[in-house]
Structure formats: structure tokens, C-alpha cells
UniProtKB/TrEMBL annotation:
Protein name, as recorded: Deaminase
InterPro entries linked to this entry: DHFR-like_dom_sf, RibDG_C, Riboflavin_Biosynth_HTPR
Molecular function, one GO term: 5-amino-6-(5-phosphoribosylamino)uracil reductase activity
Every Bacterial bifunctional deaminase-reductase C-terminal domain range: 8-194
Pfam families recorded: RibD_C (PF01872)
Length: 202
């Protein structure tokens, strides 16, 4: 019997030049996107490539209301990544995906479409990766502590590097010292100064 290929865990995230995915208080509105034309072209390109990473509330506005998932059918996030939606009164930010929030403090009944995982994110991801299905992968959308804990299981990185130095904030990875080598598979540069780098685990 042919063995199904395991699903991959892919960390798709925006990062500053000094390796921050957000400011000290979780802010991300300082990431520069260029002028209006550059910003529109960049957003159209990334939204077309990764439509499932656009929050459900904004999909209709950018023409993705009925867009099928291309790469992911599941999202895993820490409380910090979930918090902006929660603070805005949105308890199911990615309703078009299966949603898991790793948190020891979030109430398990926050939303029936969101599974709260109080501990052991490695066990969760290993279980998700063993699933069969339509060949779609698992999206890790942050934050830094969760990415640090899941580093042993991260198969690919999709890093959007923005031309800005934050100076302080939440690092892309916040965990134990564990040098892990990834190979650059592809890199795309945009006129607004952003580069999207696809890396695979060596």
C-alpha cells in the first residue's frame, strides 16, 4: 500500500530586519508597504498565492470570499497571534480553516470553531502532520514563543522581510539555543522593498 506523505508545518510570517514579528505590545502597523500602487501590487500577489492567510472578515473586500485554500487547511497560533482578533470581538478569525490556539489561559469555550490547546504544542503538530487529506499543509502564523517551541517540527519557512528595524518587540523565534539550518528554495523581491523567501529544512 502506498504511504501517504506527511503534511508539513509551514511558518509564514512577516519579519523586520532585526527579526521581529511585532512590536513590544504586539503592534504590527509599522511594517512599511510602499506607496499605494506598490502596496496594491504586493497585496494582490501575496493574497493570490496564499488566499487562506487572509482573515475571513477581510476576504470579501479583497475578492477572496469564495477562494479555495491553496496551501493550508489548518492554522496553529499562540495567544499573542490570536489576541488582535479577540480584542476586536472576532473569536474565529480564520473560519475557512481549522483553528488551533495554543494557550494555558484562554477559555476552551471561547468559540466552537477554535480548539484551545493548553499545552504540548509539539504533540498537537505531530498529530496534525500525520493526518491524511487533500495534501494541504499546516500554517503556523505565530507567535515567537510558539515558533521556538515548534522549531523541531517546522518543515518550511515563508518569510516576508520588511525594510524596517523595530528596535524591540516579539522575535520570530523565542526559544532555546538550537541552530537549525534551512536552505533557500526561492526568493522574490517586490518594488516596495519586501522580499519573500521560501526556505526548506535541510
Amino acid at each position: 500500500m502506498e504511504q501517504l506523505e506527511m503534511r508539513k508545518l509551514v511558518y509564514y510570517v512577516a519579519v523586520t530586519l532585526d527579526g521581529r514579528i511585532a512590536g513590544p505590545d504586539g503592534e504590527y502597523d509599522f511594517f512599511p508597504s510602499g506607496d499605494e500602487r506598490q502596496s496594491a501590487a504586493y497585496s494582490t500577489w501575496t493574497n493570490t498565492l496564499f488566499p487562506e492567510t487572509v482573515p475571513t472578515a477581510y476576504r470579501a473586500a479583497v475578492g477572496l470570499a469564495d477562494a479555495p485554500n491553496r496551501h493550508f487547511d489548518t492554522v496553529v497560533m499562540g495567544l499573542g497571534a490570536y489576541r488582535p482578533a479577540l480584542d476586536a470581538g472576532i473569536t474565529s478569525p480564520y473560519a475557512h480553516l481549522r483553528q488551533y490556539v495554543v494557550s494555558s489561559t484562554l477559555k476552551p469555550d471561547t468559540d466552537p470553531a477554535v480548539t484551545v490547546v493548553p499545552g504540548d504544542p509539539l504533540a498537537l503538530v505531530r498529530e496534525l502532520k500525520r493526518e491524511g487529506g487533500a495534501g494541504l499543509d499546516v500554517w503556523l502564523c505565530g507567535g515567537g514563543r510558539l515558533a521556538g517551541a515548534l522549531l523541531p517540527e517546522i518543515d518550511e519557512l515563508m518569510i516576508k522581510n520588511y525594510p524596517v528595524v523595530a528596535g524591540a518587540g516579539i522575535p520570530a523565534f523565542d526559544g532555546a539555543f538550537d541552530p537549525t539550518v534551512f536552505d533557500v528554495a526561492e526568493r522574490t523581491a517586490f518594488p516596495n522593498g519586501v522580499t519573500l523567501t521560501h526556505l526548506t529544512r535541510r
